[in-house]
Batch of 3 targets.
Target 1
Amino acid sequence: MWSFLGAGCASILSLMLRPAFPSLQCFAYEPPGCIFNAELSELCAEFITSFVRHDDCIPRISYHNLELLRDEFFTTFERIKVPKIELYRHLRVPYSEVHVASRNAKVLRQIDRTPLESTFTTKIEQFRAERTIKNMATVHLFIPGK
């Protein structure tokens, strides 16, 4: 069984246990990149060592990246031009990479032809405006330790 958040939990637990066990050392393999702020990450550098493989996306996850992913999802959702149940049927059928473009043309509007005055689009723009204001105070998070 794999533990997908084990390195993150180990890092937080080591931070909590360090005062009671001053010689504690934590080796975190592939910790999520959104655990500690810069100051706390630097403070933990003497007892937490994080290991990251070159191609793993989990240590590179950040709040900003998740916000971008959500916005891309909404943008794609706005472009859907068929009933959602029909889109579901399209997604259930396996397509080769050659046919993906033609399938997308059947179910998605071109970006410049997305309706600008729909209720959904208006609500999404309100949501994005609210998130922009809230994100101005966002704390940047980092991998724990060194």
Note: The mean pLDDT is 82.
Target 2
Amino acid sequence: MFRMLKCFIALIVLPAATVQAEPDREWSYEPSPSNLEAREWFRDAKFGIFIHWGLYAELAGAGEMKVEAWVMQNKRIPIDKYERLADFFNPIAFDAEEWVLAFKSAGANYVTITSKHHEGFAMYDSAVSDYDIVDRTPFGRDVLAELKAACDKHGLKLFFYYSQLDWHHPDYYPRGHTGQGYTGRPDHGDWDRYIDYMNAQLEELLTNYGEISGVWFDGWWDQKGTSMEHRWRLRETYELIHRLQPQALIISNHHVEPLPGEDVQPFERDLPGENTSGYNPMDVSQLPLEMAQTMNGSWGYSLVDDEFKSADELVRTIVAAAGRDSNFLMNTGPMPDGRLVPENVETYKEIGRWMQAYGESIYGTRGGPISPRPWGVTTQKDNVVYVHILDWSDTELALPLVADVRQATLMTGGGAVRFEKTDAGYLVTLPADLGDGPVAIVRVELDQGPFTQRTE
């Protein structure tokens, strides 16, 4: 009976397709004061945890590819078969507070979780669909509500990932370059009705869970062609979000230049300015930045993926991102029973110990006055520049600093560092022992600051 009621609600919320106005390619977006404040908080936060969790976690060993969140597509599983996963999705070991405390142990300041991935299954109690964790699983609990309560209790902010792409919904038509030929959906649909459905779910997420820090979009890239921002009715969607929660940051992983209404520019599996993955051909904007990377090779949980990155490697990524004035969003895929991967939990603790000791050089900083170099990066805060040495074996390091240096100390080993002014800046003589951690840090105090002009 309840499912029938929800379907009736869906019919009310999702009107028939309407004729859309001519696209306004130059529509402007003026962020609210609370949004601008949220952007500064975001830039200060520097480190977040990404969570990919859904029905796909149950098929963790089903594919050769390591993007296990894509198992429905990779294994071409029809909808009527895939839906059966919901019948035995019962993560009885899920403990939101345990999760949040683990994330805090790493030194993270925020969490981004998949509210709906490409499979179309909602990990919360949706009123416009019964294809969700509360209505279709024996678990019957709202994961997002519990996680939000735990985040609020322990001082972490919460973002909701939402997939615009949907392999399950019948009105996601015409199909993009994924979800073709195997799902069992009819070869017709009402695209505008799908967008209405998407916006209705977003309205639920922005009204039922208190203050949300942002929405992280993915899947826009599935549809190819011109004027795609208008096909997706982005202006309508973005204005909905900013109207309901003006402070909420919109982050869209669409792999093109930032569009009006967006507040953060993301980079997938790459540092800003790099494109080793092929996903990031766009220029780096002036918006706050964030790069996302996995802790092994998979976004969702994988039973067979043991290629875990070490804590040292992940710390170096945090540092490399901060030196590019970017946050690092570090992904984990919880297990089907609701537990975090044990190897990840241990890595959180190791990262957290480093962040507790040296977080001064990361949190609240901006990209330093020296642009990234082969040897490392710099960050800055007020009149202090933190020189992060990632790859350097010589005893002297040239720093093209314009301002006068007052003193320099080695944070990772202790003691003063000798420096000499030159025509090109300063020559720093490094101690023989830089410490045994993943990064050596020289704390350079300048006579004045802050400095925003970089030396290229």
Note: The domain at 2-14+29-361 is CATH 3.20.20.80 (TIM Barrel).
Target 3
Amino acid sequence: MSTGVRGPGDTSVLLVDDDEAACRLLAEVLERDGYRVAAALSVDEALAKLEREGPFDAVLTDLRMPERSGLDLLKTIREREPDALVLVLTAFGDASAAGEAIRAGAYDFVSKPYDIAALRETLARALGRRRLATASRERRGTASRPTNGAHEGSALVGHSPAVIEVMKTVARVAPTQASVLLLGETGTGKELVARTIHGYSERTGRRFVAVNCSALAEGLLESELFGHVRGAFTGAAGSRPGLFREADRGTLFLDEIGDISPALQSRLLRALQEHEIVPVGSETAVKVDVRIIAATHRDLRRMIGEGSFREDLYYRLSVFPIRLPPLRERREDIPKLVWHIIQKHQRSTHHNIRQVPDPVMEELKRRPWPGNIRELENVIEGAIIHSTDDVLTLLDDAGETEVAPTEDASTLSAVERTHIQEVLRACGWRINGTGNAAERLGLHPNTLRFRMKKLGIVREHPSRATVHVASA
């Protein structure tokens, strides 16, 4: 039974699946919905149909097929037609393959066994956005191809469900003109995701301009964003166009948007609503065509409740919000991230790391990573520099080589844990300040915190600490 989501009779779909029965049934469903469907049972047959009958408006391909996979087909199609619309069909839970397909350029994926309603909706949405993007490109006369390296950022490396969901969301929103709000902790790769969205948008040939809103004082940030005229303030010896005008017809990335003042929030809201800016010291408005991608680690909804962030600006910015997961929620991605970072840095560091020992990788997977991908990258880069051969060697916070745990080391760890706990109790669990535990132990406070995390030491309940001290 049709859901009402119908394709016009001239919309063609190529369906590729080596399961003949499943392929036939899905073809019948799509034909009842009004699509013209061609079916193929292998990659070779699909390529032959593309040669004879193509191009198709969309290709739906299974990933797991004998001889040549759906991923091979996807890559071949994208080489021939960079703007081709390809959706992949994959077994439920096969996150690794689906993630690789998304990174290779698939628009989305649908899990087997099929939810027919979801498949219809996904296909209709993909075709609709494709038509909008095509119409917009024809009006503007610009191509919609990703910039080189659009998916090379660490934020999109991995195959965890959380990362695949981000990939899917990026693929959906990139071709549109919607404002995007990236939410997530510091170090989760918000700017890299913003650049990826820009790279897969129709603005890819235009400028991507980034500014950290927390790094500039209010007056300076206002001038940076909106520009100023000569004599607008002391030291303004000449006029400056501002970042909005520099990003005209491109993308402006506003990092740490939660740190801007209420006055500047008002000016920014007006710029977004009216698509125009007024330079500092001027009364003349200037029209701008800018796509805004904003990012913050702050809880903007809580700030709205406190009165420190405008609700109308929040809704203007968050037309399409994307939450980036912290590294602790995607630990299965750490091995791939580690090798990605090694490949990124070993040439500049003149090292050739070929092996990451299992104990080292397990240690990396266990760490809490409060600084997320940025912290992981710093640790790996330092380890590459200090490794004396082709084996990655980790360093602790004091710059000393870490040794992989053994049974003896485990015993030493227990002794170390007990000693640190005793000193912490004696110091009232103070790590900083007068008479702190770090000073007694001869450690830097950050090193002590790291050792506590590694040894699993958490602050005890006050009553327990009091009893311990009293009994002493």
Note: Confidence is low (pLDDT under 50) at residues 1-7, 139-152, 403-410, 462-472.
